[in-house]
Every structure is written in structure tokens, then in C-alpha cells.
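During the reporting period the student researcher (J.K.) took over the structure-prediction task from the postdoctoral fellow and processed the backlog of single-chain submissions. One of the processed entries is reproduced below for the supervisory committee.
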Amino acid sequence: MDLVKALSEQYVKSEIPEIHVGDTVRVDVKVKEGNRERIQAFEGTVIAKKHGGINETITVRRVSYNVGCEKVFPVHSPNIESITTVRSGKVRRAKLYYLRDRVGKKAKVKEKI
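J.K. obtained the following C-alpha cells:
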């Protein structure tokens, strides 16, 4: 058990900000197209956090052109360039799956002051 812990500690990123469910975050992802590599930003609301340690993932949801898009990002992946918190949200749930059914102003999350 200690061997697995020791191996996984090498790959855990230390400079990750505090991320909570309800926050609006910008995730910069490395995208490889042929032989070129670029960074693409994905900005949306964190609707779920799962697991912990090296296996930690966040589910980010955004709506563009009236179509909802969700992506699951492994937080400690080498393909994640950076994660920045744009605004922090005030929620009372651990999972915000109810936002999938909401449209417009009802889908907003209040900002924590």
C-alpha cells in the first residue's frame, strides 16, 4: 500500500487552486492536432467533484449556443495546463446535476461574497 502511495505522490500537482462545487473555472487543456500542440480554454461551472488524491476529477458544464456541454477533467493529468477560478459560487449541494434541467436565469449559481 505504501508503494502505491509513494508512486502516486510523484505525479500529484501541487499548484492546483482550491476548487469547490459551484465555482466557475477556466481549465486550460493541451490539445494535440497532428504534430502541433496548442492550449484550449474550457470555462464553465463545476457541477461535481469525485474521488481524491491522484484520481481526483472535476465535471465542468457550460452552455454554448443553447447546447449544454459537460467534460470530466482529471485534475492531476499532464494534459491539464492550468485551472483558474473565475468566480466562486454559493451552493448547498455536493453535486449540481439539477442544473442540467434548467435553462437561462434559473441555471445561474449565486456568487459567494
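The committee noted the following: The first helix runs from residue 2 to 11.
J.K. will present the remaining backlog at the next meeting.
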